[in-house]
Amino acid sequence: MDDEAPGAPRPDGEGAWSVTATAATALALYRPRTLKNGSSFLVLDHFGDAQAIGSTAEGLFHDDTRFLSRLSLRLAGLRPLLLSSAVSADNTMLTVNMTNPDIPVAPDRKLMRDTVHLERQMVLGPGVVRERITLRNFGDAHLSTEMSLTFAADFADIFEVRGQKRARRGERLPPEARPDGALVFAYRGLDELERRTRLRFDPAPDTLAGRDNRWRLELPAGAKTVIEVTITCESGPEAQQPPEAPGFDGLLAGMRAWRAEREGARAQVISSNQAFNDWFARSESDLTMLTTQTPSGPFPYAGIPWFSCPFGRDSLITALQCLWADPELARGVLRYHARLQATEMDPARDAEPGKILHESRLGEMAALREVPFGRYYGSVDSTPLFVVLATQYAERTGDWALIREIWPNIIAALRWIERHGDIDGDLLLEYDRQSPNGLVNQGWKDSWDSVFHDDGRLAEAPIALIEVQAYAEAAWRGAGRMAKALGHEDEAAVWTDRADAVQARVEEAFWCEELSTYAMALDGEKRPCRVRSSNAGHTLLTGLPSPDRARRIAQTLMAPESFCGWGIRTIAEGESRYNPMSYHNGSVWPHDNGLIALGMKRYGLNVQLERLLTGIYDSALAVDMRRLPELFCGFPRRLGEGPTTYPVACLPHAWAAATAHAALGAMLGVSFRPEEGVIRFQRPVLPSWLDELRIENLRLGSASVDVRLRRHEADGGVSLNLLRRRGQIEVAVIT
User: Fold this and answer.
1) Per DSSP, what are the bridge partners of residue 670?
2) Which is it for strands 128-137 and 224-235: parallel, antiparallel or unpaired?
3) How confident is the model at residue 54, as a pLDDT?
4) pLDDT tens across 677-726, in order?
5) How far apart are CA 565 and CA 483, in angstroms?
6) Which ranges carry the Putative glycogen debranching enzyme N-terminal domain (predicted)?
7) DSSP 7-41
8) What pLDDT score was predicted for residue 344?
9) How confident is the model at residue 6 (pLDDT cuts 50, 70, 90)?
10) Helix, coil or strand: residue 402
11) What is the secondary structure of 503-558 as a DSSP string?
12) Element containing residue 730 per DSSP (H, E)
């Protein structure tokens, strides 16, 4: 997936950027408290502290740099006792409730525990944290005590936090207490950029001492006091910093207004099953938090903590999964990638004209090219996926004005597929990195050992992945349909013919009769990697296989070797490199399953679809907060146990969150005919755990409908009622 997982082992020489960090505790078990806004994110423990106990991936991050590495609150020198800790349902505010332990106040007297209530509330804006600390004395006597906050700023690049070792770093300057009461930590980087963390306090601490800052508290019985802290991330000359952010309440109101705007742009879903509602609501809230408003529109960042930045493949797949409910997200993604599409050859960045972005970073190491990801193009699938999303967006919305706007980018992407992506002119899309520091594998499974033969030998580049051929075939076919709609008849015919040729070539080169599925890939000698993998399931999404082969692929994917009970494994049990604890060779990825579910629906494979959807749904119920992680281990499902966590999986992650939309889209079989003003539901399916479903604000152009679907116990059929219609729009059910 994204630059490989932190902690994934790699042999020497497989890329200078490789990382070796390991996690002491799986993020899914440890459950850090996370907020995100724009290019900033905050990861804290349950107490609202960062790295108060030991080294972790906690802190305040902005533009791929950790601006605050230590935050620790103490009452009378002791850590308070935790009562509760939660991020609000809309992901806008962290609230932590604590109380005092037994505190000695005299040789013969102590403050009894549970006397002082301490509440921490935090909100995150772009490059700024506002914290409000409220202390109240519930005792019957006056209280004199002390509260302290300890800070540190290491200005570590995100790749350092992931485990990358650097030969040298810039200069960390001593903390400085300014005359205006601000406390400033600063770092002068090797990229000649000065980064600063500025802290302001209201009221000012009685002791402002750099790392440790103390307030003397005098609290009469029943009284309370409030301390507010502002933490601001700054880069460049101080005179050029933006104006101060709104206060705590203003910042919170602005964030909630943005979230309300995003919610209003997409369909709303509620069902008769509260657990399903919780999963879907959590997924929507996480997607909104991970989405950043860019000049091109809304754009989903990949995941926290490792990938909170723009990714090509991730954003395109996330938008595809959500397209039926939220076409505005796809619009933002398409415009963003059109703007950053490569225009020239740059081997150091694996860039070629027409290629779509893989990843964009803003940190010091990227600026110095210690890692190649400042603006990196080393993914083979982003470019065809860009054309696929453009096609599906046009057919979902009828927004041909956007397609005309990005038509030169679509043409450039197709030229890249033909001229640069097809290295040897055999109609197949291959990859072979140009940058010695770039990614060895450039599909979504981008671990160094993720593409291999049935005897375990690693495939040598150039490599042609099966799912990428499906994306390419769909790109050519979709481009043909778009060209025809725009009146470009000659291009439409040529591109449709090329799609037919690619499809025939794939069937000839990849099908493995003895495995009842496609080979995972072809190596540089065109030898098939005869391995049962989830990659082949993506061909169902695009419609590449014949109906008979699609059925056989689905049966292979749902066999016990591949389907573990929670979902489909990336690699089937019994294959040479199968390891259920690996990043890509036996784990389960929710988004992978979501795409396969959409593909099963395309072929009317409803029996397999219901089994798969039940596994995905059950996994969501079994994880904390109903928040599906980036991936989990592929061990077989056991009674009374949930999925086994993968230690450093991102949580939340955009395309994992979008899996809820893919699952529901697969159930509904929903499609759109904007030229006719019709929304169609093709053989809708509601599993046994979902009796009734209501969808509001399902939009087509300026019109929208509210509908209700009900499952009939007697025969499992689904009926649909139109509840409300706004504008010229029709709803049709195809049985």
Assistant:
1) 681
2) antiparallel
3) 80
4) 999 999 999 999 999 999 999 999 999 999 999 999 888 889 999 999 99
5) 43
6) 35-229
7) T----TTS-TT------SS-HHHH--EEEEETTEE
8) 97
9) low
10) helix
11) HHHHHHHHEEGGGTEE-SEE-TT--B----BGGGGHHHHHT-S-HHHHHHHHHHHT
12) strand 730-734
Residue 16 confidence (pLDDT) above 90: no
Pair 650, 304: CB distance under 8 Å = yes
pLDDT of the residue at 20? 36
pLDDT-derived band of residue 2, with 50, 70 and 90 as boundaries?
low
Q: How far apart are CA 645 and CA 635, in angstroms?
A: 10
What six digits make up the tokens of 341? 């599409």
556, 518 Cβ separation under 8 angstroms: no
| CB burial readout 404-442, b (16+ within 10 A) else e | eebbebbbbbbebbbebbbbeeebbbbbebbbebbbbbb
Residue 29's pLDDT is 57
Q: In what order do the strands lie in the sheet with 718-726?
A: 268-271, 692-700, 703-711, 718-726
CA separation for the pair 576, 582 (Å, rounded) = 13
Mean pLDDT of the chain: 93
What sign results for the dihedral spanned by CA atoms 367, 369, 372, 375?
Answer: positive
- If phi > 0 it is left, if psi is from -120 to 50 it is alpha, else beta; for residue 701 that is left
Is the distance from CB of 63 to CB of 187 less than 8 angstroms? no
pLDDT class of 8 with cuts at 50, 70, 90: very low
Query: Residue 127: how many CA atoms within 13 Å on its side-chain side?
Result: 14
Is 21 exposed, middle or buried (CB count within 10 Å of its CB: 0-12, 13-18, 19+)?
middle
Instruction: Report residue 601 as tokens.
Output: 């629906």
pTM of the model: 0.94
Residue 553 has pLDDT above 80, yes or no: yes
Asked if omega into 295 is within 30° of 0 (cis), the reply is no
Distance of CA 582 to the CA centre of its chain: 19
Q: Does the pLDDT value for residue 78 go beyond 50?
A: yes
Q: Using alpha carbons only, what angle is made at residue 322 by residues 379 and 566, rounded to the nearest 5 degrees?
A: 80
Q: Is the pLDDT of residue 10 over 60?
A: no
Q: Six-digit token pair at 279?
A: 């999963």
84 contacts: CB under 8 Å, gap ≥ 6: 95, 96, 97
CA–CA separation, 69 vs 154, rounded Å?
6
Positive or negative, the Cα torsion across 574, 580, 582, 587?
A: positive
Q: Pull the structure tokens for residue 636.
A: 């077989």
What was the pLDDT predicted at 11? 43
Backbone phi, psi, residue 82, to 5° = -80, 130
CA pair distance 683, 670, nearest whole angstrom: 9
Q: What is the pLDDT of residue 5?
A: 52
Cβ atoms of 32 and 625 within 8 Å: the answer is no
Domains of the chain with bracketed CATH: 32-254 (2.70.98.40), 265-668 (1.50.10.10), 679-734 (no CATH)
Main-chain dihedrals φ then ψ at residue 263, nearest 5 degrees: -65, -35
Strands of the sheet with 207-209, listed across from one edge:
70-75, 143-152, 212-219, 207-209
Other CB atoms within 10 A of residue 281 CB = 17
Closest Cα partner for 562 from 542, 538, 587, 541? Answer: 587
Predicted local distance difference test score (pLDDT) of residue 716? 81
201 vs 342: CA distance, rounded Å: 45
